[in-house]
């Protein structure tokens, strides 16, 4: 286990603890079941995308932990890459974790994992949400890209690309839900604020 792996494992633990703590706080303090990914009663397109997100993000998390902790024991080798590539991946991952945590905090009690059609939440437009409609997803995308650079091989790149595609499809489903829920307010927000960052 080298210093890159220690940094990677630390980032994984920070991400996992913040994610789990947010779910726990919403459940215990406010009685909100925020994890609604892949739940029944949603349109088929939404349910299929959410199930894909659930599966591939779980695989990504398992691989991230396995590589950074040395659990694979050399079973799945990574491509030889220059040291600066993996350190660039570490920096991108760290930035992604930071953006995700800040975005999650700004969402307060409106934060959900998946599309929640059972409760009315507020449309958050302040903080990071002034610059991106989906900063938490931007954080995830940066973590996927960073992971592919830290531990490049065919499996990890394939899982990372699947996650990038599926999260984009989930965003499209969420946009339909928000448009139905908030109407003109969301439409104006969508015109004024990019989906990802200032250029997309």
UniProtKB/TrEMBL annotation:
Keywords: Membrane, Methyltransferase, Transferase, Transmembrane, Transmembrane helix. Pfam families: PEMT (PF04191). The keyword Methyltransferase applies. One of its GO terms (molecular function) is methyltransferase activity. The chain crosses the membrane at residues 6-27, 87-107, 155-171. It is found in: Endomembrane system. It is a multi-pass membrane protein. Gene3D superfamilies: 1.20.120.1630. One of its GO terms (biological process) is methylation. Signal peptide: none annotated. One of its GO terms (cellular component) is endomembrane system. This is Protein-S-isoprenylcysteine O-methyltransferase Ste14. It comes from Fontibacillus phaseoli.
């Amino acid at each position: 286990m080298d210093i890159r792996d220690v940094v990677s494992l630390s980032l994984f633990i920070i991400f996992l603890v913040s994610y789990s703590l947010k779910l726990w706080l919403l459940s215990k303090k406010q009685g909100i079941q925020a994890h609604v990914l892949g739940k029944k009663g949603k349109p088929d397109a939404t349910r299929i995308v959410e199930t894909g997100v659930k599966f591939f993000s779980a695989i990504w998390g398992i691989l991230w932990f396995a590589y950074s902790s040395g659990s694979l024991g050399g079973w799945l080798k990574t491509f030889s890459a220059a040291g600066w590539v993996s350190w660039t991946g570490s920096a991108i991952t760290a930035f992604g974790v930071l953006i995700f945590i800040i975005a999650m905090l700004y969402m307060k009690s409106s934060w959900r994992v998946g599309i929640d059609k059972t409760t009315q939440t507020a449309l958050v437009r302040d903080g990071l949400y002034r610059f991106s409609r989906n900063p938490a997803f931007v954080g995830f995308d940066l973590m996927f890209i960073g992971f592919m650079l830290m531990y490049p091989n065919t499996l990890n790149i394939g899982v990372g690309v699947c996650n990038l595609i599926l999260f984009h499809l989930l965003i499209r489903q969420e946009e339909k839900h928000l448009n139905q829920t908030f109407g003109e307010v969301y439409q104006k927000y969508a015109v004024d604020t990019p989906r990802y960052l200032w250029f997309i």
